[in-house]
Specification:
By secondary structure, this protein is α/β, with parallel strands linked by helices. It is built from 15 helices and nine strands. The chain has one domain: TIM Barrel, CATH 3.20.20.140. The strands form two sheets. Strands 1, 2, 3, 4, 5 and 6 form a six-stranded parallel β-sheet that branches. It has a three-stranded parallel β-sheet with strand order 7-8-9. Helix 7 links the parallel strand 3 and strand 4. Helix 7 crosses helix 15. The N terminus is likely disordered.
Length: 382
């Protein structure tokens, strides 16, 4: 205190501050872009205005934005969710991502370590993967407390019912549910599952972009099945009535989880091989396996998922999946703010409605897919 800092230190501190302020936004503007494809009809806009929307997956907690303020980048925030008639958004928590992401990945190098550093996350939040997850969960709770009632974090079926009752007379509100992408966020210790549950997490996947101590990834080196820890993880998830998410799971882990699960599972964000054949997407047999257990499949919006960059490409994936398992097992799985380009943001669902109607979906099927299925699933399974 009082001593004059050397010039190099001042420059370094100011430079780091500027980097922390600018870098997440610069990265997000490039990665979470919107192309605004497609026009809409009065019918689509009218139908959108009557819906309760719910989405199985988005990643805005990564990017350092104030989600209570309408942003000029990315795909969603609370004002845009409310404008888009979202009753509920599942908020994904991401704790480790290979850099760059390849078709086959190990766990390092880690882009979230860089993002957390330049984003100014507290040291304890960066020290462990569980710490990263708890920090992001706490961010959503802070937004909810500061929202003046506009945002509610749902933890239980009772929470959801109370919120939906309030929404009948207060439509300008929205809700969030916390999910974790990849059980590596447990740092190999199932006790951390209870810590994340206490922080509000109600959904988790065994893996993300690489194989974990719990199970194989569709993008991993070995792509094995569930490990011994993975089988104990699944049993503990079911004990806590947490929802198992098989997005990104390897085929072996996927089939083993379906065989072992006694409760419905979800695939929060995916495409289908029937319209876009790649290892990340689901086969018809995998679709049937999820539906047979009473689960839900969230169809994503990004090009690798649907082999296109238009609402029509997304609608074709929905139409194929509907032909295999019926509209009652489908949901939105946008992957908004997940480092993907999409043809609209959270305010633009009338564009998807237009494309679904063109694919032969009835208005009732649109209502199911855009939110009713997911809201009913959560009320049954939380």
């Amino acid at each position: 205190m009082g001593a004059k800092a050397p010039l190099w230190l001042v420059v370094a501190v100011l430079g780091l501050g500027a980097l922390r302020a600018a870098a997440p936004g610069l990265v997000e503007r490039r990665l979470n872009a919107v192309s605004w494809a497609g026009g809409t009809s009065e019918r689509s806009r009218r139908l959108h205005g009557s819906l309760e929307v719910a989405d199985l997956h988005a990643d805005p907690l990564l990017w350092g934005r104030d989600l209570l303020v309408r942003g000029d980048r990315g795909h969603l925030d609370v004002p845009r969710l409310i404008e888009g008639r979202y009753a509920l958004q599942v908020f994904g928590i991401v704790t480790r991502v290979p850099m760059p992401i390849r078709r086959v990945n190990g766990p390092t190098p880690d882009s979230i370590a860089w993002l957390s550093l330049v984003g100014g996350w507290p040291r304890l939040a960066r020290a462990t993967l569980t710490g990263r997850a708890l920090y992001q969960a706490a961010r959503l709770h802070r937004f909810a407390r500061a929202s003046g009632g506009r945002l509610t974090v749902v933890r239980s079926a009772a929470d959801l019912r109370a919120y939906m009752d309030r929404r009948r007379t207060e439509p300008a509100i929205t809700a969030g549910l916390l999910a974790v992408e990849g059980a590596h966020a447990l740092d190999g210790d199932l006790a951390n599952l209870d810590r994340l549950y206490d922080a509000g997490v109600r959904m988790m996947a065994p893996s993300h972009f690489f194989d974990t101590e719990v199970g194989g990834s569709a993008h991993g080196l070995a792509q094995g099945g569930l490990t011994d820890l993975g089988r104990r993880w699944l049993a503990r998830m079911e004990e806590r009535r947490m929802i198992v998410d098989l997005a990104h799971a390897s085929p072996a882990a996927f089939s083993q989880a379906l065989a072992l699960a006694s409760r419905p599972v979800v695939v929060s964000h995916t495409g289908v091989r029937g319209t876009c054949d790649n290892p990340r997407n689901l086969s018809d047999d995998q679709l049937r396996g999820v539906a047979l257990g009473g689960g839900l499949v969230g169809i994503g919006y990004w090009e690798l998922a649907v082999c296109g960059s238009t609402p029509a490409a997304i609608a074709k994936a929905f139409a194929h999946a509907k032909g295999v398992i019926g509209a009652e097992h489908l949901a939105l799985g946008s992957d908004f703010d997940g480092a993907v380009r999409t043809p609209f943001d959270a305010t633009g669902l009338d564009r998807l409605i237009e494309a679904l109607l063109a694919e032969g979906f009835t208005e009732e099927e649109v209502r199911l897919v855009l939110g009713a299925n997911l809201l009913a699933f959560l009320e049954r399974n939380l």
